Amino acid sequence: MQRRTLIPSALAVTVTAVIGGLASRPAQSSWYATLRKPPYQPPRQAFPIVWPMLYADIAVVSSATLDELARQGRSDERRRYIAALVANLVLNGSWSWLFFDRRMLGTAAIAAGALTVSSADLTRRSVAVQGAKAAPLGLYPLWCAFATVLSSHIWFLNTR
């Protein structure tokens, strides 16, 4: 993996993590504490463990995918992958703002669904280029699918 690819990918993912993290601080607020949540909600401590691992996966697998596309001379596909990655990171960072800052539970649930689709597409693109080497990225859409179910359930529980 080339540094000239890894550094911008890691930087983009880090910016996304910071932006989302800034909005997630209200997870310790009285508003969040009063929300009804399903019994399968992970403990608060799970999120700062899971997300950094997923962000590292996104940066590393995306960098390797971009390097391989460049090596193969597939520049149009490489540009499309970058666009898909940027769209994914925007969706990723937006969810926390919609849920915690704006308290738009329904919109956040829909955004989580869009993030799941986007993450699955990113994984599909990476696997098409790298095969099994991209498999770790498959955890990302799985976690996003779980987050979609969880967000939707919280929305449902708190709209009655």
UniProtKB/TrEMBL annotation:
Highest taxon of source: Bacteria
Keywords: Membrane, Transmembrane, Transmembrane helix
InterPro entries: TspO/MBR-related_sf (IPR038330), TspO_MBR (IPR004307)
Membrane-traversing stretches: 81-98, 134-156
Topology in the lipid bilayer: Multi-pass membrane protein
Main location: membrane
Subcellular localization: Membrane
Keyword Transmembrane helix: yes
One Pfam entry name: TspO_MBR
Family: Belongs to the TspO/BZRP family.
Protein name: Tryptophan-rich sensory protein
Source species of the chain: Mycobacterium deserti
